[in-house]
From TrEMBL:
InterPro entries: Bact_2-comp_sensor_kinase, HATPase_C_sf, HATPase_dom, Sig_transdc_His_kin_internal. The chain crosses the membrane at residues 299-321. It holds the Pfam family His_kinase. It is a multi-pass membrane protein. It comes from Hungatella hathewayi WAL-18680. This is Histidine kinase/HSP90-like ATPase domain-containing protein. Gene3D superfamilies: Histidine kinase-like ATPase, C-terminal domain (3.30.565.10). GO terms for molecular function: ATP binding; phosphorelay sensor kinase activity. GO terms for cellular component: plasma membrane. Keywords: ATP-binding, Cell membrane, Kinase, Membrane, Nucleotide-binding, Phosphoprotein, Transferase, Transmembrane, Transmembrane helix, Two-component regulatory system.
Amino acid sequence: MRRIHTMRQRFFFKSFFQNLLLLLAPILLIGPFSIWELNMESRSALKKSSYNVLYQVDETMNTLLSELDNVYYYIRSNPSITTSLKAAYSEPEITLNSLRSINNISSLLRYYMYTSEYIQSIYVYYYNDRDRLLVPEKGMVSLQAHSANGWIESSREMEEDIWLDTAEVAPDKYSEAKPVIYYCRKLYSTIDPSNAIGVIAVQYDADALIRYINSLGLYSEQSITVLNKKNQILFQNMPVDALDFLDSETELQLGGFEYSDIRMDKEKYTVSQMHSNYVKDLDYVSVVPTKNILRSSSWFATVFCILVGGAIVISMILAVFKTQKDYKRLEEILDLLSHPELATSDRQEKTGAFLDPYNYITYNILHLFLQQNYLKVQTSEQKYRLKTMELMALQQQINPHFLHNTLNTIYWEAIALTKGPNTCADMLTKLAAIMRYSLGNPDESVTVREELGYLKNYVFIQARRYQNKFQVEYDIDEKALDYPIRKILLQPLVENAINHGIKELEREGIIRMKVHDCGTHIYISVLDTGVGMDRETLLKLRQSLLVTEEYSPHIGLLNSHRRLVLTYGPDAGIHIQSHKNRGTCIFFRLPLEDVR
């Protein structure tokens, strides 16, 4: 008993490790590589996506900031406008000429404002003692009446000629202040280029720029930050302290594009930084939580662990069932060897028995053991059938001879009644010829000429029977007349055409017999203009040609098909084409190498 228990354990562990190896092998080979590959593809996709996003932001910022340059060069290239504007800032009362200049420059500034959804206003300011400021929407206004003027004081202290700054400005005293971005450029005297005489400032809507960034198809929780050269945050779509990431020393330089993995506050981030290709004062920073990048690979890793656990469980279940099955098969083998004849018959009744290797081997041993007895019984049965067929053949030879003699007697009686040849005597002559032809050995070969002679006798009798309801046309190739073929191959085809095609017609039908020598084969066809068959009936008839035991009203056609296949091979079988109310064509081909 203990030995049996030990064998069961061995079977179990062997089956368990075999199944586990088969299940885990593809998972372990494909899973880790797929996770690694997916991780690398995700990082590569992020790198490309971040670069494209930052590049698009840079292109947009360059387009927006170039509006300031257009205004600047327009004013510098028109001295008359510059002179008139400077005069408007200093004269006690604005003259008509200055007012025209103010209107002209205001129209240009409004054009830039209204053609960009990001520009809120464009200011032109010349340093003056009268606290005047050119606002495109209002013209020349007082600084005290316009709250958005912090950039003017900054310009007096700023050493740079061009700079970016931020502020929060309320459109009016009843509205909440909103973030804006100023892009400023100093104006210098044409006489003394080192003397700053004013400043041009473009006010951008920071919220509109943030909406633009969010429309670029970012990753989940991805932050895009735009900074000036002092690392001052101009605007960002999500509140992230980008300066902390820029202070990290884990940067990976990729040309003009910086890419790094940074851990901060116990969370890992992927940071991308790009310096502007157009504006030297701008930097762009992208920050994405790494977990959002690797979400797909993390999900795949979870699935991988589930598959490994499932493979272990399935392997244990399969091992239990296989151990029980192996012991059951061993017991069945012992039963088979103890009672071979009974066991063999039982095996044949069980579905899927031979899928098991033990049963297959055992059955073959028992089959060889019992094969001799089976062969003896089969040989005895074949001898019995041969004897029966010989007796039937002798009986069939007696009956046709009696009929032939009787027909001759009737023939002479018909001659005696009319004192000469008549239609009845002619029909008896044809019928006697048919019987003499059919009494011979059905397996012997005759020429096509002889087979056609037999067929014409049959057609003569059928034409009298159906009162000339049809005509038979012959298209015979002279070269094919002397080729040998099997006896009584053509008559069943014509009989089928009469019984199933012509007989049901209300008009006269035509049967065309064609025999042609095609070089490699003899083509024989029988075409009738009878009632034809629908598609369903045609398919059933074609199917019946393939089933040897099925009964069919076209028994002559089926017998001819089987004789052709047995004699000349499968390619010589009968083919049938038919159309309802149009007729039927039956044809076959005899290979000339077999005919010769």
